[in-house]
Amino acid sequence: xxxxxxxxxxxxxxxxxxxxxxxxxxxxxxxxxxxxxxxxxxxxxxxxxxxxxxxxxxxxxxxxxxxxxxxxxxxxxxxxxxxxxxxxxxxxxxxxxxxxxxxxxxxxxxxxxxxxxxxxxxxxxxxxxxxxxxxxxxxx
Amino acid sequence: xxxxxxxxxxxxxxxxxxxxxxxxxxxxxxxxxxxxxxxxxxxxxxxxxxxxxxxxxxxxxxxxxxxxxxxxxxxxxxxxxxxxxxxxxxxxxxxxxxxxxxxxxxxxxxxxxxxxxxxxxxxxxxxxxxxxxxxx
Lengths: 140, 136
What we know:
The complex is a heterodimer of chains A (140) and B (136).
Chain A: E1 2-15, H1 24-31, E2 40-53, H2 64-79, E3 82-83, H3 97-111, E4 116-123, E5 129-132
Parallel strand pairs in A: 1-3
Antiparallel strand pairs in A: 1-2, 2-4, 4-5
Chain B: E1 2-14, H1 23-30, E2 39-51, H2 63-78, E3 81-82, H3 83-86, H4 89-92, H5 97-109, E4 116-125, E5 128-132
Parallel strand pairs in B: 1-3
Antiparallel strand pairs in B: 1-2, 2-4, 4-5
């Protein structure tokens, strides 16, 4: 039987929303406070959903130790307590939470092969959250 | 189609062990969860049903009936229990959150009148939950 498993993680990072393709006025108009040149930070909450058949021998979709290890190594240690604008991933990409969700989804899709990746959900604050399911409609 | 979700909480203990594995395999695969004395969680259960709104009552489902079925079928059986030893499904299946979501679905499915079960979500902790949609 197929089940969906969701695990929640936390990390903190700073960013500045600024596009080199826009004028200074346009950047301020588009990004508002988020365009402050010195940046600002968030406590992000990340939800990773994977799915697959429940293994009758273990009762698991995948071993959480493996998922936690992968996310810790490939996602949290890469982004936690960093300035996102300084990272290679965002050298040409504005580090909005939309783009960060897509980036994290792609890291997981490339490297975590022990279950099917369904979706990534990223909370930037308690008021804003973003979901990306690789272009598919996230399951409700 | 309208979706309606009812929440409930229960507390239970469990441990993970497969008698077909060696003690070393059990410890390696299940880690701390293999402690035979068990450990516990405060589980949160979310049951989502779907259906058309009845024009007379304005309901998708009688919430009172849903609540009673959840109490009778799930909470009475699982709240303040050692799942491995007191809930028949887990005499042979490992009481992981995945299997718990499946067991809740199977217990509710035949008992719900009118409304169609859409999703069972079981939170083992606020940071870990499983969704089951009745898929084989």
